[in-house]
Write a structure and sequence with these properties.
Helix content: 40-55%
Strand order of the largest sheet: 2-4-3-1-5-6-7
Distance between the termini: 45 Å
CATH superfamily of the largest domain: DNA integrity scanning protein, DisA, N-terminal domain
Largest sheet: 7 strands, mixed
Number of strands: 7
Structural class: alpha+beta
CATH topology of the largest domain: YojJ-like (1
Number of helices: 11
Order of helices and strands: HHHHHHHEHEHEEHEEEH
CATH architecture of the largest domain: 3-Layer(aba) Sandwich
Number of domains: 2
Strand content: 5-15%
Length: about 260
């Protein structure tokens, strides 16, 4: 028995590492959310079931066994949003679109030109000065096709006037996010996944929560312009930063697109 116990194969070690990696990624995804508490509760129920089975308490063990029997379905129902985000995270973060991260001349990662980044930032600054709310998503490597399905496909060249026209308060496309991919305005009026983070400043509204949710599952950088305060914020890598100096916007966006920040 002891010999069998200590006979650990290489595949067993790989198995343990893979399980630990998946659990860690799941923890990163749901930490700071209500889902984490639900997960802990389910885990405690599972441990209790194992305990009563070991103690051969037949009645309660049978009842809890029936509950655990439908546990997978219950988990899918309860965590459907988190599961979707987890799969998107794996796809966007670890499966690239076959492009090498090489910077050539004035072109940034994913083919963005310095001139177009300047146009995006200039539009955001001008909208901030008039307190025009805006939500601009810039993809680095992740495909935004999934998020464009419920929006309006544009596929237009980037210009300051077009971005301002999209977010003009009476414009039909102003509600939602603009997606920028492959050096083009890909889509507008897009719905983004909301972050379930509980510890957000009270002044952060739906735009900020949407921007945070987007950067939690993709490698995008998101520019948020508040229509209440006219302030500009940046969301990246699952965090939001207030921009005290709007003129730094170009530098922040360009810096993010030039390198792989982890």
């Amino acid at each position: 028995m002891i010999t069998a116990f200590i006979n650990i194969r290489l595949l067993d070690i790989v198995d343990i590492i893979l399980v630990a990696f998946l659990l860690y990624q799941l923890y990163l995804l749901i930490k700071g959310t209500a889902a984490l508490r639900i997960f802990i509760g389910i885990f405690l129920i599972y441990l209790t079931w194992l305990l009563v089975k070991a103690m051969k308490m037949e009645l309660i063990s049978t009842i809890m066994g029936q509950i655990m029997g439908v546990g997978v379905i219950a988990l899918i129902v309860v965590f459907q949003q988190e599961i979707r985000q987890f799969l998107l995270l794996i796809g966007n973060k670890y499966i690239k679109r076959g492009k090498f991260n090489i910077i050539q001349n004035s072109r940034l990662q994913s083919g963005y030109s310095s001139a177009n980044i300047e146009r995006i930032c200039q539009a955001a600054i001008e909208m901030a000065s008039t307190k025009t709310g805006a939500l601009i998503v810039i993809s680095r490597d992740a495909s935004l096709k999934t998020f464009a399905e419920q929006g309006e496909i544009i596929n237009s060249d980037i210009s300051v006037q077009l971005l301002k026209a999209i977010f003009y308060k009476d414009a039909p496309l102003h509600d939602g996010a603009v997606l920028i991919e492959n050096n083009k305005i890909y889509a507008a009026k897009c719905i983004l996944p909301l972050s379930a983070a509980l510890e957000l400043p009270k002044e952060f509204g739906l735009r900020h929560r949407s921007a945070l949710g987007m950067t939690e599952i993709t490698d995008t950088i998101v520019i948020i312009v508040s229509e209440q305060t006219g302030k500009i914020s940046i969301a990246k890598l699952g965090k939001i930063y207030k921009l005290s100096q709007p003129e730094r916007l170009n530098k922040v966006v360009t810096g993010y697109l030039r390198k792989n920040e982890d």
